[in-house]
Amino acid sequence: MDRSQISVGRATLGSAVRSRRKSRSQRQSMRSVFGVASRLGLTPALTTQRLNTSRKPYKSQTITEKINPEHLALLVKRQWKLSYVTPLYQFRHTQMTTYARRLSAFIAAEKQKGLAVEVGELQDTFKVCFSVLQGMSEAKDDPEAVLIQVKSRPMFAKQDEPQKTVWSGWLACVDGNPEYLNSLPTDFTCLPLFGSNGAEGLSSLVKSWFQINFDCCFGPLDIGETSLEWLAALWTNCNGKSNIQSLKMHWTIPAVHALHVEYTVSADDAWALWCSIRGRSLEESNGTEEEGCIDIEEVKSFMQGLMGHFYRHFRLDLSTGNLNQISTALGSATLNDRIKVSTSIYLISTLRLLTELALLRLPI
Amino acid sequence: MVYVFSVDCSIRNMNDSAKRSLQRLLRRIPFRMLKTSLDKWERLTAEQRRAIDLTPTKRDLIQEILSLCEENKWTEKHIAELQMIYVAENPDQDMWHTYQLVDPDDDARSVDLIQFKEQFKSHFREVQRNVFVKIRKHTDEAVWIRIAWGEGLSPPNNLRASYVVHHLQTPFVYVSSLSSKHKPLLLQALAFSTRHRGIKDANLSGRKLTALRDLLMRQYQHVFTTKFPSPLKEQNQSPLIEKEQSGPSAKRHRMAIEAFGEGALPAIQTAVYKLETKFKDPTNETMTERDEPFRCAVKFTSTNLLESLRSCASSGIASTPLTPLLSSIPLKGRNYFVITDNAPSACSQMSQTKN
Asked: Using CA atoms, how far apart are residues A362 and B8, in angstroms rounded to an integer?
């Protein structure tokens, strides 16, 4: 489309030159440089891209050999609140124990200051554990993911009672844009996706600590409706190999009293609809499309099909409301940045989409 | 009262078990409602009642009441009474399911409360011995029945009592906390004692008993009203409003009112539709040619579903005239529907299935 308008990013803030040109194998649509840039308050030289309009279907990957099963058990079947993180300055994967110690001290100090940690009744000391999540990164440029766990014991528990994890979080970069990653100066590590599970108080403490120590900043990931629709399509696409059991969508319609619509489609019927759309588009394309790639148009047709069936019965237009949750047996995602991956085989694929989203949301 | 359970329990055991039941019940009742319920129960002396008034915390209050248990010789029967009073005062907590009595006998209309009570209890006596039944008439003329079920030789379980609410001379019965095991017996007893030959699921359920009842009472009265008057005619309108209103928005508003009614509507909170209709999309041949139905389920939820749908209709989010699927909620007084294609027509029609 407007590929000729791709500009190589000029130097900003006197530091790095970052070029955000995507490789030719991925079809992109670029928004007008000025439109978006002025809205975000960026200098006109930088381009901001939209989400990929074309994606490879989820590949089922047995990652149980690659990733430590204990770590995997922690990641899967748990709901994570997502944020984006700007690149970390001087973050070293070799300093895990030092970081753990420093974060424990930080949490203890903040607690003493009287900051409410809101973990629950009378927690005693917090012990932090940093570990490298090996096996999560896909591309060779991806830095290794990091897992952070905060363990504690209630105040009046016995000494020999084991500490249990009260908060966990991770930083990851799965298949990040290699050009962007390579354009960063050497001291910066890009782990743009942050997930947390546990008390909000501890989450903000951990984020503050990162901000102070690595000169980064956190922000809401803002999974938009488009990404939710992508997930609906991608997960339904997996039904051939792994039964999704059902596709459940949740809309909120604005009315005098907010109307919530939960629309659940059986797996077989969602799959039949999806195949009818895929089959059709494969026939129509003249072979320029990459084999197996899913296009945004197919995703949109799929959603239109579902909403149309609803309309034919209820004559109520779902697009007047907001799609705010998608869930299947493989996982669930909500508009307010919560995600749960229920099966390890699609963990990497889901994180890939989320990493892309995080990179897009980075302010610079 | 019909009350049959093991007669060789000692008085002391009875008292202990009454105390335990009382404690469990008091814990469940929120603090602010305890005093009202105790007042209605009328089993405390004036002095005891005054002493209760002085206790500031729930924990102290519970201790105080438990200490009176032995003094006042309260039994499980009395505790059951208190529980029933509390539930009747706060009916919007449990999940209620509605049933409809059908095929009345000739003398169904003349059944009065005494007759009903006698018939109901005798039916239970004959069929199942180990139950504890209590029937009480509430202030709004509703008959409340509490049934505690016992298994084999063990005493009736007072924690999991079923409740039934019925207004005599109406066809509807509301039931909560009924297990599927006991359902046939209870429904049979109800049909028998109200002189009807059958009873069926009315496909209306929800937490707010008052909303379910209001909806059905409206529907019951709805038979006698033909059409709602147009709201526009009743107002003195300025020419500007008339000009503005005289258009599609006025029409939508009118249709919304016709379907749902004016003013405050019963606070039904959910409606569930199971759709088993074919997928008919002119732009998607593959799916349209498919023989199997497209199985899906839609659940609508709102703090007040009917008012929400009415506002969707007036604002245009829902196209008017409203589809019969939505307008059936107030019209037929139900909130559970199974929709199938019952005729080879362009738009699928609704077929009601009995559950």
From this structure: 76
Distance of alpha carbon B169 from alpha carbon B111, whole angstroms: 8
**C-alpha distances in Å from residue A199, one per residue of A84, A165, A203:** 18, 11, 6
Beta-carbon separation of B284 and A305 below 8 A: yes
Does the beta-carbon distance from A259 to B299 stay under 8 Å? Answer: no
Q: How far from chain centre, in Å, is Cα A330?
A: 15
DSSP secondary structure code for residue A30 in this structure: B
DSSP, residue by residue, B159-214:
GG-EEEEE-TTSSEEEEES--TTTHHHHHHHHHHHTTEEEEEEEEEEES-HHHHHH
Closest CA to A330 of A353, A314, A307: A353
Q: Does A283 touch chain B (CB under 8 A)?
A: no
Task: Answer for the pair B145, B177: CB distance below 8 angstroms, yes or no.
Answer: no
Over the stretch A20-54, which tens digit does the pLDDT of each residue have? 343 333 333 333 333 333 344 333 223 345 667 77
Which residue, B19, B276, B265, is CA-closest to A269? B276
Three-class SS of A237-264:
HHHHCCCCCEEEEEEEECCCCCEEEEEE
CA distance B58 to B18: 19
Taking the CA of residue B205 and the nearest CA in chain A, the distance in Å comes to 18
Instruction: Please give the full DSSP string across B313-337, using - where no structure is assigned.
Output: HHHTSB-SSPPHHHHHHHHHT--EE
Nearest-by-CA chain B residue for A306: B279
For residues A185 and A13, is the Cβ–Cβ distance under 8 A? no
Distance CA(A140)–CA(A137), nearest Å, equals 8
Global pTM reads 0.79
A329's tokens = 């047996």
Cis peptide upstream of residue A44 (ω within 30 degrees of 0): no
Confidence of residue A7 (pLDDT cuts 50, 70, 90): very low
Q: Residue B209's CB: how many other CB atoms inside 10 A?
A: 23
For chains A and B, what is the number of CB pairs under 8 angstroms? 118
A261 and chain B in contact, CB less than 8 A: yes
Whether residue A257 and residue B307 make contact (CB cut-off 8 A), yes or no, is: yes
Residues of chain B found within 8 Å of residue A263, distances taken between Cβ atoms: 296-298
